[in-house]
């Protein structure tokens, strides 16, 4: 939810080790000097237990990178929302473009995952974003609206409890960032779509993601509808992540 400050989420993707995680978290915790924002780290499932211990008593919240659309049962390899709750997970990324692209996740499936997370008291971070071909064909708005519409449709009045992350696919891991104006334009579209669905659209944090880094974070975060960031590569380096948190506290 869009609380008082920005929401800054590190998406570690499939990176880390017991040793690397311990040192990254120690460096992050040592460098955080105020709490005017909410920081979150989304770790691989196998490290959630480790992260739960490392983050205990800190202001940094724990997140997962996915969640099953099913509640329990014969779903080999899946991890349920209630299992995530057992490990203190407060946020779950759903519908990341890498899941949509490499695992065939559809809008409807992503919407079910968001629903399952909400039912377990976990805030889903719903990712939307267009590919380069879609942007060049002038379809950006239509694509992100279609992706968000599925989640709105499945979640009804609970929609004010989600977080949205706009991540243009062409900007993820490429070093090519949307300009602050491009991000704001899409964020404003998403905000008005949320406004049409709920009287509490202002509560929804809309994050930008895609090559956000220490150099461009402040300008992106200065946009009126950019409520935080979903950060991949730069979240794996404590100094970079910390300087982005600093930008979020201004
Ligand atoms: P990036 O990844 O910051 O490395 O581009 C962002 C994301 O995929 O969430």
Q: How would you characterize the overall build of this protein?
A:
The protein has 250 residues and is an alpha/beta fold. The chain has one domain: TIM Barrel, CATH 3.20.20.70. Helix content is 41%, strand content 15%. It contains ten helices and eight strands. It has helices spanning 18-31, 48-55, 81-86, 97-102, 107-119, 132-136, 140-155, 180-197, 217-221, 238-248, and strands at 7-11, 38-42, 61-64, 89-94, 123-128, 163-166, 206-209, 228-231. An eight-stranded parallel barrel has the order 1-2-3-4-5-6-7-8, surrounded by five helices. It starts with 6 loop residues before the first strand and ends with a helix. 2-phosphoglycolic acid binds next to strand 8.
SSE order and pairing:
Blueprint: E1 7-11, H1 18-31, E2 38-42, H2 48-55, E3 61-64, H3 81-86, E4 89-94, H4 97-102, H5 107-119, E5 123-128, H6 132-136, H7 140-155, E6 163-166, H8 180-197, E7 206-209, H9 217-221, E8 228-231, H10 238-248
Parallel strand pairs: 1-2, 1-8, 2-3, 3-4, 4-5, 5-6, 6-7, 7-8
2-phosphoglycolic acid is lined by residues 11, 167, 172-173, 209-212, 230-234.
Describe, in short, the structure shown.
The protein has 250 residues and is an alpha/beta fold. It has helices at 18-31, 48-55, 81-86, 97-102, 107-119, 132-136, 140-155, 180-197, 217-221, 238-248; strands at 7-11, 38-42, 61-64, 89-94, 123-128, 163-166, 206-209, 228-231. The mean pLDDT is 96.
């Amino acid at each position: 939810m869009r609380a008082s400050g920005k929401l800054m989420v590190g998406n570690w993707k499939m990176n880390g080790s017991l040793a690397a995680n311990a040192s990254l978290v120690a460096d992050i915790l040592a460098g955080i000097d105020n709490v005017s924002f909410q920081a979150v780290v989304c770790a691989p499932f196998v490290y959630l237990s480790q992260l739960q211990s490392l983050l205990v008593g800190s202001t940094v919240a724990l997140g997962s990178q996915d969640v099953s659309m099913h509640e329990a049962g014969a779903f080999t390899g899946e991890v349920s929302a209630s299992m995530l709750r057992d490990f203190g997970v407060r946020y779950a990324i759903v519908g990341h473009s890498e899941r949509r692209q490499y695992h065939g996740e559809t809008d409807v499936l992503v919407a079910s995952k968001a629903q399952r997370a909400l039912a377990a008291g976990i805030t889903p971070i719903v990712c939307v974003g267009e590919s380069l071909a879609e942007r060049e064909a002038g379809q950006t708005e239509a694509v992100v609206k279609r992706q968000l519409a599925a989640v709105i449709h499945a979640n009804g009045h609970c929609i004010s409890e989600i977080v949205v992350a706009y991540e243009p696919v062409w900007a993820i891991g490429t070093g090519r960032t949307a300009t602050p104006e491009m991000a704001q334009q899409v964020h404003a579209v998403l905000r008005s779509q949320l406004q049409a669905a709920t009287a509490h659209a202002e509560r929804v944090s809309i994050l930008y993601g895609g090559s956000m880094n220490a150099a461009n974070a402040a300008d992106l975060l200065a946009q009126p509808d950019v409520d935080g960031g979903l950060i991949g590569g730069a979240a794996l380096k404590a100094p970079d992540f910390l300087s982005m948190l600093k930008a979020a506290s201004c």
